[in-house]
Each structure stands twice: as structure tokens, then as C-alpha cells.
Amino acid sequence: MQFLEKLNPQQREAVETVHGPVLILAGAGSGKTRVITYRIAYLIEKVGVSPDSILAMTFTNKAAAEMQERVEHLVGGRTLAKPVISTFHSFCVRVLRRDIEALQINGKGYRKDFAIYDESDQQSLVKSAMKRLGIDDKQLTVRNVLSRISHAKNHLLDPQEVYLQSGDPKVERIAQIYKVYESELAKANALDFDDLLLMTNKLLKTSTEVRERYNRRFQYVLIDEYQDTNRPQYEIMRALAGTLHNVCAVGDEDQSIYSWRGADIRNILEFEQDFPEAKIVRLEQNYRSTQNILEAASAVVKNNLKRKGKNLWTERMGGAKVGYYEAPDGENESLFVADYINKYLMIAHDEDDEPKRAAVLYRTNSQSRLFEEAMRRYGIKYNVVGGFSFYERAEIKDMISYLKLIQNPSDSVALLRTINTPTRGIGKTTVEQIERIALETNLPLWDALGHIVEQRLMQPRACAALKGFRELIQDARAMLYGKFEERLVETAQVSKPEESDAAEPEIADEDLQDNMAFDFGELEPDAEEFSPEALGTAEEAAPEKVEGFRSPGENANVSEVLKFLIDRTGYIKQLEAEDTPESLARIENLRELVNAAMDSRDRGETIADFLDHAALVADTDDIEAGAQVTLMTMHAAKGLEFPLVFIVGMEEGLFPSSRTLMNPDEVEEERRLCYVGMTRAMRILVLSRARYRRRYGTDMPDASTASRFLSEVPPQLFEDIGSPQKKTPVFGDDSYSTHYDYENEDQRPQYGRTKQKTSYGGGSTYNSIDNIAEFFASRGKKFNRPSVPMEEPHGKRGFRPGQKVKHPKYGEGTVYQREGEGEEAKITVQFPRFGLKKLVEKFAQLEKA
Ligand code: ATP
Ligand code: MG
């Protein structure tokens, strides 16, 4: 078994122990994820397990996709079937789409076409619940209410219990909102993210039939990032482990960073209780980072009192010291980072084991803006993870809401979002009327609306507008389901003429089952009735499968429906009329959505798959191939690795976040987050802070205080890489500050010896290029100096990337790259107003700006 040689003895043991439970607790970069991946490959290749009886859970969709790819690589793509590798949430959606009807809660059931409500949908529900209850409490923010609701749900408390347990009027109000929120969700046949887990858990607990079916199907269960699983996830895992107990969970307590979302440390402790025969494996060798980085990160996390403690070592001795940069302000900090990355990208080599990539990590998404601007100024291709992802943009959400409403007309949030978007003369009072009637009749808004139109319960003008909207949705629905509904009627007449109403779910059911059986691979691979032999050839036995293989609605083209909607609503026309850069960008986004729908269809997906995807794309899924720099939060960086990592904004109040400062447990979580951030770095780690920062649009009058985490890095592992000169100590700690408090350049330790210094921004000087170059040299790696040696002063040899230049026509710009030499030299410049221009240097009439 060749690939096993790429594992150390402990890892190998974990991979080869396939029967019975295994728990791996080990530090960052010790190969936990690798063990999961290799274990899957080993099960398939060596143990001969059928791939589709393997289920692996990852933390993000992206991690799942990556793991899938690696496994395929390891087994050489020899098998047709694939293991199921997904996030808990995606897995739960698939289970529920197949089996939710087996679940009864308070005598009420759910339908398979349930909608998934994301955070903004949830917010609208809470807002309208508060409005309805007349709660206008400045102290109750929508976010706050939602997090309380989520907390209650995850602790399996219903509104009643929340109400009874509290003597606090504020909590009582939350309980009331919670109650309305839940009943509105049910009415809309919708589930929020918490429900996806909770319902699956309930389903597996209450239906023996369903649970045993999944137990037969998935005989091997693996879980990555185990420290961040919450209670319902744990219980799902336990249910899935069945009686075989072939579970393998890997995690690191020091990287537990989601307790605010309900991640539960008990899961680690109870694993040993629930699975007493568990084999516990420890991994101590880190393969990711250099010794300096590892030691610095360990030194920081050691300050947490609540931890077991462990040893990690690496063969990558020494390495560059952890860099420190103190910027005068936020803008300078971002330019420093961009400049450093620019140079790094020029001299670093792409290597097999270490692609040329960098990450800028921060505490909150809003910090990305300055760095985005700096990257643009340097013409560096970058990706921002999180923040405003594609599916969160207003125009995209509008269209997705249309699709959701078409798929599930009970979806009231989708209805409210679309009813007057774009404007079609349905005013606020009309909407309130519909809401009132819905409330009185206890019907979903869609039915109330139909009632109003049919009974003409409103002014003719309002009725006409509502009718128009209703017909739009009905027409789109006919487009999507038309063929199916026709077929439905026919079949209904043949099989149960007297009960045509009852026929719909039945047919839908069968079709859906086919669909889901396909999606999961077959749920029970050995079940005879599903096997191709039992069915004869696909064409013979199941002619429908060839064409109309999937669930209702898949024959129609979602992209066609989208085009129809965009056209008939006049959405794009309205944007065209606006004719601003913003509105044109929105049009582009809408076109991209149509493309996405087409791609989805090409993959053979249904409208439900398409909508599930839109609801489930997590922040980290935005990492695009190609860009070499990724900007993201430390939370999003979990599990990833980069040769060069910056952690920026290392200031008290920013990181650790001001919200956590009062609570020692929360500060410990922030420190773990710092550990996660630092351990993403393979070769070079730089921590930076700004002395002055603008917040909420005003310049903060006082200098920031350096993050406590900075002072926890041992001084001998740390070096200043060119902070602009200053007299004030860097840290409150005096013994520390002397190290950085130099009077002039010559006193700067180590790096004062280079001649060439790049100046920028506020006239600060630094020479990160030498820092990087030296480091590469010290590791015996070659590196490319850019075609213009960095030491040469500008003028003789031409312009350098990163340099500011001036062009008679295009104005000021920044050199992006230079190709060729002498007469041949071509230079690409990024001009803020004209974009990238490639010019022949000789003729370009460029001047130094
Ligand atoms: P994290 O805690 O950050 O999730 P991890 O424990 O999951 O880290 P991996 O991501 O699996 O660690 O591994 C870290 C790096 O070390 C990866 O680049 C991986 O390929 C490499 N690696 C792991 N084990 C070995 C090994 N035995 N030999 C060589 N490289 C290894
Ligand atoms: Mg990992």
C-alpha cells in the first residue's frame, strides 16, 4: 500500500484501525485531516469497503470538495461510486429531503419541498414577529433575539419553557417572539439552519426504520474539526454510528472557536464515555510550520488556563522569525501588507508542496475594505472570503426568493420579498391586509392572497396588482412543473380517480425517492430492488429515468424560468434605466445567476438542489482558484494553510474583540482563535497593528493598545520588520519596548544592513524583500529575483513593480509588472481611472511619480 508510506506511525495506526471508534486529539498541522482522507482511501483500497458506505463530515463545503478530490487522487479514480463527503448541514438537507415526512412534531408534519431560511430570512421573520407583537424595544436587537432563539433551540427548549424559566421581562418577550417565529416557520413549511440539524436528529431518534436504513447504508463515519461540533451534531453522529461504532473523529481543543455558535467541549469528553472501547490517538509532529512559528503559536495558547496542554514539534527547524509591524495608521498597515505580498509573489517559487499563496487574516469581515483597496492599488489578484458573498447580494436574493416562492408558495418570507420587487403597485397597506387575513384564517400568505383575489376583497386596483403577481408566479410554476402536473393528473385518474388530491404527494414521493437515491448513491447499495440487475437495463425497466429521471420540476429549466422572471418583472429594464455603474454590476450579477442555473442543470441538478446550494454556500466557498491572495477572517481560515500569513489589527478591542474583554472564557476563545490564525502559516508569519485607527468613520483620538497576544509571543522569536520610527514603546511592557525603540536605522537589529529601502506611505522604510529572500536562502531554496534587481536604485534599469509612476495621458498609476529587458522592456501599469495598461517602456513617457 504505497500511500501509507506517507504517514508517520501514529497516523498510520489511526488509518489502519478501521473497526471500532477512534478519537484523534492533536495540535494544528499534525495531519488530522490527512488521516481522515487517507483513512477513506484505505477503506476503499485495502479493506475493500464500498465507497458509498463511507460518510465523512467536514466543516465547510470547500473542505468537503477538497477531500473528495484528494481521495479520488489516492484511489486513482478507480471507483465509480463516491464516498459521501459533506458538511453536517448539507448532509442533513439530503436526509430531510428524503425522509422528513416520517417526522411528526406535535402531530404536524413537514413536506419535502421545505424552504431553507438563511440568516436574512430569519431576520425578516423576527422583525415581522416583533412588529406583530408590538414589541419596539430598543434593547432587543433582531440579532440578539435570533441568537437567543438559536441558543434555546440548541438546548432543546421550546418557547413555553423559555417563558417559564425566566422571571426576566426581556426574556419573556423573547419567548413570545420565539413562539411566533416558530409558528411562522411551520406555516411557511420552512426550516432554519438550526432546524436542519435538530430535525435530522429527531428523525434519526424517533424513526427506527429511518435510522436503521442509514446505519445499513453508512458503515463508516468520519468527522473532521470535531472540537467545533455542537450538541445536535454530536447526537446525529452517535445515531449514525449505530451499533458498529465505526466512527473516527479528529479535533484539537485548542482550536475550538465556535462555542458562541453552540460548539460543545463536552463532545470530546463524552466520546470516551459513549464509546468506551475508543482508541485514542495522539499526533505530535507538525508538518506545516517552521519551528519559530510553531513555538510562537504554542507560547500564545499556553496562556489559556483551561486546556490540557500538548507537545508539538516540527522538523522544519528555525525559519524566519515571526515578523512584527506597527503601522502609524490603518491605511499604512494595509499598504505595508500589500507591498510585502507583492514582493513575495515576485520572488517566491511555486513548489509542489507549497504553492505561492498568501493570506491576510483579520478578526471581523469589515476589516477587509482597506486591504482590498491596497491590493487593488498594487494590482494584486485577491479573493475576499465572506462578507458579501454572491448569494447575499440584493438582486440575487430577490431572484432566489422568486424561485423559492415558485417552488414552495407557502414560503411567506419569499413572498414578502418579491411581492413588490420590482415595484408593481402593491403598497404597504395592501401587504398588511394580506398579513391580517393570513393571521385570521391561519393560512400562508399565498393562500390569503389567492382568497383576496378570488373574492375581490380589496379595491379593484389593489386586486388587479395582486392578480398580476399571482399569475406571474403561477405561470412560472407551470413552466417549471407544467409537464409534471399534467402527468400527475393523468396518473391520478388512472390510479385513484376518486382521490385525485391525494395523488400528488404519492407521485412526488416516488420521484423524489429516485432523485435522492441517486444523490446519495443508492441508500442501500445491496437492496435488490434498486440494483440495475433487478431493474433490467435502465431504459427498459425505467424509461422515465432516462429523461425525467429526477424529481418534479427538474425537466423545466431553472435558467429559463429565471430569464422569464427577469423579463416579465422588468427587473433588468429597471436597472438599465438607472444606468449607474452599480446598477450595471447588478445586471451582470443577474446574468451570472442565470449561468449558475445553467451549470447546475448541466450537473443534472433539480431546482431544489439549486436552491439548497444557494442557501448553503458558506463563506469559505468563495475561495476562487487562481487568486494568490486570500483575505478572510481567522474563523474562515480554519483547516487551511498558506506559506505566508498576516494577522492584522492586533489591537486590544479589535483582537481580542471588545465584546469579549469582560469575560475570561471568551478571551480564552479569542486566544484560541489567535492560535488558529498563527498556525495557518507554513513559512512566514507577520503580525501587525495600527497605532491609530479610524472606527465608525471617526479617527480614534487615542493610540490603540497592542493586543495582549503580541506580548505573549516570546521576544526572541519576534522581530520588527521595519515599523516606521517611533519613540513610544510598542508594548506597555517596558522590557519589551526597548527591543524596538531604536533611534535611527543603524540601530535596527539584523535588517539594517541593506542599502536599498523602499519607501512608501508616510515615508517609513522597511525591507521585507530581504527578509523573505534571506529566509529562502537560509532554507537552501532558490528564489527568483525579479528581472530588475531590487538593490539597483530606480532610474538606471527601469521601473519596478509596486512603484508609483506618472503618464502624460493616464495620470498616476502603479507599476504592476515588467517583462523583457532594454529596448524590449514592456511595462504593465495599473491606472486608477483607466485600469491595466501594457506599455513599451521606451516610448511610454513614464515618469517617477
Ligand atoms: P489543522 O489542525 O490546522 O486542521 P491538521 O492536523 O488537520 O491541521 P493537516 O492539514 O492534515 O493537519 O496537515 C498539515 C500539513 O502537513 C498538510 O500540508 C499535510 O499534507 C502535511 N502532512 C501531514 N502529515 C504528513 C506526513 N506524515 N508527511 C508529510 N506531510 C504531512
Ligand atoms: Mg485539519
UniProtKB/TrEMBL annotation:
Keyword ATP-binding: yes
Annotated region described as Disordered, given as residue ranges: 721-763, 784-810
Ranges of residues in domain UvrD-like helicase ATP-binding: 5-290
Xref: CDD domains: DEXQc_UvrD (cd17932), SF1_C_UvrD (cd18807)
Domain UvrD-like helicase C-terminal span(s) in chain numbering: 291-639
GO annotation (BP), single: recombinational repair
Protein name, as recorded: DNA 3'-5' helicase
Organism: Koribacter versatilis (strain Ellin345)
